[in-house]
Design brief:
Blueprint lengths: L1 H31 L5 E5 L2 E8 L4 E5 L7 H4 L3 H4 L4 E5 L19 H14 L6 E5 L3 H10 L6 E5 L12 H8 L1 H10 L1 H5 L3 H9 L8 H5 L7 H21 L10 E6 L7 H4 L11 E5 L6 H4 L1 H12 L26
Parallel strand pairs: 3-4, 3-5, 5-6, 6-7, 7-8
Antiparallel strand pairs: 1-2, 2-4
Length: about 350
């Protein structure tokens, strides 16, 4: 009888210790990664943003497990030389608040409307909307549902389609055992996650190396906070089904679209999130970067900023050479042997 009690007590003490370590880690992360911008409350939601420059408006929206430092450490400074640029922390990420989940999931269309409302409150109307990775869904949602409120959209390695199958065990755990996912978030994600950050960044930047100091510049420690981790898991788990309902409307879009993508991006591959748009959105322009992964704004900053600035000015890129490239390469059919 004593052994089970000892095991339960040990488990409780261990869990309490991990919760304490998580709290300490979160506090340390928020001390080391301060808010670098200002705050605005729109529709009851407090948003953290950085705004710089003068000229036509550009709004930058970051992807999963990230924050606005994704852009302040890459394309924002250069774009701000000729444009009024705003980068937002998405609700629940960085230092932006998140509406109560009791109100339902904050889907990409609602998020697009919220960020455009905030941009207009800051004096920027009909901006070019740029979305990296997950936030490609925000760009496509705005093009479909809010075309009169933006002047065009830029997919920066952006999600534009759906996918099949689970992402990985973290997301499956949240769907099948939500209570266990929450326990994981509040006990293990922060203490253990910091040891796997570099490995995750290597996948994002491949085939390029991760730049020195990227972990510190990007403020990625904020993504290991329990609430932010759970928001990210929820956003990822909802996205594919949402994109299935959105993509049938792409053919009706008439607004300008620029697709910037790395040929070697294995996380959001071009063949599924760029190539498939071209037959239904003939106005789409493409900058396809050779030997480039999921972070072209960091590894090909000059090319990316130049392309966004030119797109904002209304310049049109030459069409992508046909046959359109597709990743991965399809196997060459072989003749049957006699």
């Amino acid at each position: 009888m004593k052994l089970p009690l000892i095991m339960v007590a040990s488990a409780l003490i261990g869990a309490l210790l991990m919760v304490t370590m998580t709290g300490v880690g979160v506090s340390r992360a928020e001390q080391q990664v301060d808010p670098i911008g200002q705050f605005i409350t729109v529709n009851g939601v407090k948003l953290h943003y950085v705004m710089a420059g003068e000229g036509p408006g550009i709004v930058l929206v970051h992807g999963a497990s990230s924050n606005l430092r994704e852009f302040t450490s890459s394309v924002l400074p250069t774009l701000a030389k000729t444009h009024r640029v705003i980068a937002f922390d998405r609700p629940g990420y960085g230092f932006s608040e998140r509406p109560s989940e009791a109100q339902g999931w904050l889907n990409p269309t609602q998020l697009a409307a919220l960020l455009i409302d905030a941009s207009e409150a800051l004096g920027v109307k009909r901006p070019v909307l740029v979305g990296h990775s997950w936030a490609g869904s925000v760009v496509m949602s705005a093009l479909v549902h809010l075309p009169e409120r933006i002047s065009g959209g830029v997919l920066l390695s952006g999600v534009a389609g759906h996918w099949t199958g689970p992402l990985d065990w973290k997301y499956t755990l949240a769907e099948q055992r939500p209570w266990l996912s929450k326990l994981f978030a509040y006990t293990l994600v922060q203490p253990l996650g910091q040891f796997f950050v570099q490995e995750g960044l290597a996948e994002v930047f491949a085939p390029d190396p991760v730049p020195e100091g990227q972990v510190e510049r990007s403020g990625i420690a904020l993504a290991l906070r329990p609430k932010t981790y759970l928001y990210n898991v929820h956003d990822m788990n909802e996205l594919s089904a949402y994109m299935q309902t959105l993509s049938p409307h792409y053919a009706q879009v008439r607004s300008p679209l620029l697709i910037i993508h790395g040929e070697s991006d294995s996380l959001v591959p071009f063949w599924n999130h760029g190539r498939r748009l071209l037959p239904v959105m003939p106005q789409a322009q493409v900058l396809l970067l050779a030997k480039t992964g999921h972070a072209p704004h960091h590894t090909k900053t000059a090319e990316v900023t130049a392309a966004i600035a030119a797109f904002s000015r209304g310049e049109v890129r030459p069409p992508l050479a046909q046959p359109w490239p597709i990743w991965p390469e399809l196997p060459t059919p072989t003749s049957p042997q006699p």
